[in-house]
Amino acid sequence: MTLLGSAVEVLSTADPAAKATASHRAAAAWRAGDLAIGAAPPPPDRPARPERPLLLAPKEMPKRKAGGNAAKRTALLHALAHIELNAIDLAWDLIARFGTERMPRPFFDDWVMVADEEALHFELLSARLQELGAAYGDLPAHDGLWEAAITTSQDLLARLAIVPLVLEARGLDVTPATVADMQRAGDDASAALLDRIYRDEIGHVAAGMRWFEHFARGAGEDPQLHWQALLRRYFRGVLKPPFNDTARAAAGMPSTFYRQ
């Protein structure tokens, strides 16, 4: 197996627990020096998925709110588990779709690390759901994250601009309030789990920022201006406050990027 082949293997694994295990296995082999970058068949347009959860359009999803009763907290944790499952595939798709032998090794080190941590996040959220008497797949989920992957499938800079630097960065904005809601509801276990994920995600946004700047400058582009141009082209929404300037700055993203 090669690193790119392992990435395609993860993307082609439908069972969520097996996908997370395959992600850990590939990451460990890469860190041990057992995988060359190599080559592989093209990644699938969409990763393999289990029969459940039912996937709905984002506008069809019921509204979620943290805190409150156990059912609402379970629904929120289920939604976050779905995001993390997609995040496993997004990291490996980035490697499989855009990785070549010409890429610097630290590029692969970073995204293998991200994929490994996203798999752990999914496992932790799945375990917490089980403690609450639920399981991943019990509730519907939406496919919005993979729509962003499809839209940016031909452009590495666009992928970096939209996935880590918009979608994951938004998680940095909203998670502290979610943690506080969980604490107010007396769910300290879920609050601690989300805080742990939040701290890891700062590193994921930092990886996106680091490599976006690297490849933008390599293409002769001003990173800030090019990021804003890519948002106008590829991002359907509008960046709205509140912004977590502290966490974004810790990830290397200055406020001038997103406050204009």
TrEMBL record:
SUPFAM superfamilies: Ferritin-like (SSF47240). InterPro entries: DUF455, Ferritin-like_SF, UCP012318. Pfam families: DUF455 (PF04305). Residues 36-68 are annotated as: Disordered. PANTHER family: DUF455 DOMAIN-CONTAINING PROTEIN, SI:CH73-314G15.3. This is Ferritin-like domain-containing protein. The lineage of its organism: Bacteria, Pseudomonadati, Pseudomonadota, Alphaproteobacteria, Rhodospirillales.
